[in-house]
Amino acid sequence: MDDSDFPEGRRLAMKGFPGPVEGRGMIIDRPTEYLIGLVHELRKLPVETEWVEFKHNRAEPEEIGEYLSALANSATLLGKVNAYLVWGVGNETHDIIGTTFNPMATKVGNEELESWLLRLLDPKINFRFYALEIDAKMVVLLEIGAAFRHPVRFKHQEYIRVGSYKKKLKDYPEKERALWRVFDQVPFERGIVAEHISSENVLKLLDYPAYFDLLELPLPDGRASILDALAKDDLIRCCDAGGWNITNLGAILFAKKLDDFSGLRRKAIRVVHYKGRGRVETLREQVVVNGYANGFEGLIQFIMVLIPTNEVIEQSLRRTVPMFPELAVRELVANALIHQDLFVIGAGAMVEIFDDRMEITNPGEPLVDTERFVDTPPKSRNEAMASLMRRFRICEERGSGIDKVVSEVEYYQLPAPLFEVPDGFTRVVLFAHKPLSGMDKADRVRACYLHACLKRVMRDYLTNASLRKRFGVEEKNKAAVSRYIREAVEEGVIKPFDEDAARKLMKYVPFWA
User: Fold this and answer.
1) In sequence order, what are the residues at sequence separation of 6 or more whose Cβ sits closer than 8 angstroms to the Cβ of residue 508?
2) Beta carbons within 8 Å of 345's beta carbon, 6+ residues apart
3) CB–CB of 300/315 below 8 Å?
4) What is the C-alpha separation between 338 and 358, in angstroms, rounded?
């Protein structure tokens, strides 16, 4: 989209005013005509409300920060997608009077206003400045996304609107309680990422054919039937003001380009291929622009192309195989997308490929202990997304995805995967093949534990024979395998099923069994 799409914004820029200024975008880019119409609609309100504030020129940075907190929290409480702060409109008359406030030219010390506000807001909520020319006068519109997960704070203080007044939230406990009830009831997928969108533009923004392909359904005849099907799965909703609202669920699963929804740009999954074992030199980096559902197959194919290969000899034939089994990659990438914390601002899932390993990381700590990934049914923050992805057969319906990963790793006799929780993120590491002699004690103990977990969910036990098969060890070397079992017992990750059993009949289970 170029300047010709925003003629008003271009004229303003020429006069020293900015066009749209993004803080943390939450909507699709707005045509100037739409924004001017929005200002006129806000002016029709009989009085200032708890989600709209009018100003003339007064634009103290501290006060703007407090209004960001108050208006964001009030928008959530009132069920609004956005709140607004408008400069250049009379407070009493709602007439267009113009303003001298220029957000792009405003600094706090040596720091730009936008950066300063973002730094002092917690969480880093969605907001965006727009500068417009209306009736030959300058107007600045600040569009503020509703708060999510917990109240927005500015300089460690939470604010709320009471009528047309800005107050400290702590002084109104009944509003604070009501706000927390809303946070508990509204998951990320149910939020609105774009509102008042025409039927035609909904079909331009969303890859609706992929939706029907994934469900193995024929494409309905007519636009109305298509929109009705999308609405039944809450990908879109009817907008009270006309047209449609696109939900976060609809956009994040089926966006043709996630960049079209600026609040979801950082949710696009990144794939980075490094040279060697470190992050010093990048060979290739790609941000996958499609939604998670319509782009999943292409994403997996792209990853598998980048994965290093090994040559194996089977029945005197030499064959090239990927370093990591595709089924394991599919399951782990799907898990990273589905179980991520979508409320984390500025972070998305990432796949990093090295010469000796692959790391798959997503924002948010797991809701299940990493030691119980194999046996515990998964808990998802994003149930609506998980449900749809199951219907699309992209992820496992019964929560056996990690079981399959461990099983595939064992089948190909790779080192056991590593599950980590670094600083609020979840990471799974797949390791390239290495001989048993090249594995250290931690590798062996982890392999023993996950083997015992896998056996347990199959109502079976770890034995010397089963572990020999897992490691590819001949029976004559079973004494070495007994030593590996003893290491795992000493580390407390497995235990004998029956301590009184004969040594040759000894069976083992995970520590939690």
Assistant:
1) 452, 461, 462, 463, 485, 488, 489, 494, 495, 496, 497
2) 24, 123, 124, 125, 266
3) no
4) 19
pLDDT 10s digits, 202-234: 999 999 999 999 999 999 999 999 999 999 999
- Phi, then psi, of 171 in degrees rounded to 5: -85, -5
Low-confidence ranges of the chain (pLDDT < 70): 1-30, 311-319, 378, 396-400
Q: What are 421's two structure tokens?
A: 């929780």
Asked if residues 355 and 273 have their Cβ atoms less than 8 Å apart, the reply is no
**Distance between CA atoms of residues 33 and 6, nearest Å:** 8
pLDDT of residue 316: 52
Strand partners, 140: 87, 131
How many alpha carbons lie under 13 Å from residue 139 in its C-beta half-sphere? Answer: 29
Structure tokens, 163: 């009528």
What's the predicted TM-score (pTM) here?
0.76
Residue 371 dihedral angles phi and psi, to the nearest 5°: -75, -10
The SS3 call for residue 137 is strand
Q: Among candidates 223, 367, 379, 389, which has minimal Cα distance to 294?
A: 389
pLDDT tens for each residue of 154-165: 999 999 999 889
Residues whose CB falls within 8 Å of the CB of residue 133, separated by 6 or more in sequence, listed in order: 8, 11, 12, 139
Asked whether the CA dihedral 300, 302, 305, 306 is positive or negative, the reply is negative
Residue spans of alpha helices (H) in 215-262: 223-232, 248-254
In this structure, which amino acid lies at residue 444?
Answer: R
The set of residues, in sequence order, having a beta carbon less than 8 Å from that of 60 and lying 6+ positions away, is none
295: which 2 tokens? 């782009």
Assigned token pair, 477: 């070397």
